[in-house]
Amino acid sequence: MAFGKVEDLTGSCELVIFPDSFARFEAQLRDERPVLIGGGLEVEEGVAKIMVDTVSPMEDILKKTKRMVLRLDKIDPNDYPRLQSLMKDYPGTTSVSLEIEVPEVNRKVLMEMTDAPGISVNNEFFEGVHSLFGRTDFIELRS
Fold first, then answer.
1. pLDDT tens digits along 34-59
2. Could you state, in order of their start, the residue ranges of all structural domains in the chain?
């Protein structure tokens, strides 16, 4: 059994990894590369805990990504050229879609970028996004 913690600039969450999950995912947990954690969320006395039931290397998740969706309503329009420039540095096969929420009509609009090349979704791309914007929460990966 193991315990851990994930945190960002807004807070933290405890991880509880029971023996059966720990036995299955020990190698990924000990490796120092980024992973995607899945499980159930429990909140007791204002403290959040994730009961971990899956651990996947982020590299594997990125390889399976078929589409990257950019939530344009989550970033400043003045930053669009910087994002476009970064994307040109990582050409690849993953298709890119743009999504924007239009609250006046209570709708989201999803636009497929069919005239632009795809992108190579990898750790270096995300590091570049984080370096430029300080966050990556406006990007959604879909398989």
1. 888 999 999 999 888 999 999 999 88
2. 2-57, 65-142
Q: What string of DSSP letters covers 94-107?
A: BEEEEEEEEGGGTE
> Kind and range of the H or E element at 125?
helix 123-133
Q: How far apart are CA 24 and CA 84, in angstroms?
A: 40
Quote the CA–CA distance of 101 and 110 in Å, as a whole number.
9
User: Any idea which residue has 């315990």 for tokens?
Assistant: 3
Q: Which tens digits make up the pLDDT trace of 61-84?
A: 888 889 999 999 999 999 999 999
Contact 40, 24 (CB under 8 A): no
Strand order in the sheet with 47-57: 2-8, 11-17, 47-57, 35-44
Q: 48, 15 in Cβ contact below 8 A?
A: no
